[in-house]
Amino acid sequence: MIRAYIVLAALFGLTGVALGAFASHALKSQLSAAYLAVFQTGVQYQMLHALALLGVALLSLHRPGRLLTAAGALFVAGILLFSGSLYLLTLSGIGKLGMITPLGGTSFLAGWLCLALAGWRIRS
């Protein structure tokens, strides 16, 4: 899983930068200010959790375990569900997609909890 998490972290970082630039340039005149802010929220959370996923992968090199594997999987799910639903919502205008967003947020929270528990179990 370590290799997969590093590759996914890099791809999420790459697409986060690309989507942020896309929003700043191409979408600025296409979306309302409110929808542009929603899109940028998706980008921010994607970038933050791409870095968190990279941290999980690097920590897993030294302290592999189920909690770190779960944290990584939950961060991936969170990016796809939270950020993905925000992107789709703003680009399609389908408001019902916003019902998916909290599932992604819950995935992020669970991922951070797994990471905290994994850290708690590390002995000095």
From TrEMBL:
It comes from the Bacteria. The chain crosses the membrane at residues 43-61, 68-88, 100-120. It is a multi-pass membrane protein. Pfam families: DUF423. It comes from Stutzerimonas stutzeri CCUG 29243. This is DUF423 domain-containing protein. The keyword Transmembrane applies. It is found in: Membrane. Keywords: Membrane, Transmembrane, Transmembrane helix. PANTHER family: TRANSMEMBRANE PROTEIN 256. Belongs to the UPF0382 family. GO terms for cellular component: plasma membrane.
